[in-house]
Amino acid sequence: MKVDFGIWSWLTQAVIALVVLAILVFIFMTYVPLIQRNERMRRNLDQLQAEQDQQMEICRQLKAEIEALRHDAPTVTRLVREKLGYAKPGEEVIRFESVATNGAR
After folding, report:
1. Which residues are CB-contacts of 80 (< 8 A; sequence separation ≥ 6)?
2. What pLDDT score was predicted for residue 4?
3. Helix and strand tally (H, E) in the chain?
4. Is the terminal CB of the chain with fewer CB neighbours within 10 Å at N or C?
């Protein structure tokens, strides 16, 4: 036997649905800032990782240059000639200077 309570049955269901909806909205509003913060931190972490990779590549190149300067005599000779303008006896050093241009003629 089913008893009809009239509008009270419908109102009870509506209140329960609204309470559930309010709880879901509260949970959503609580976690949205955390999700956004997590996304910002992830982007920052990715950016820092890329920067670290670049710095590691620079470090690798510098270590290779140091090793070449320590153990490779032709490299040292080439750099001394280029940077300091040294030459072997009997050689002539020719230097090219860049012309400063200011755009006005």
Report:
1. 86
2. 67
3. 2, 0
4. N
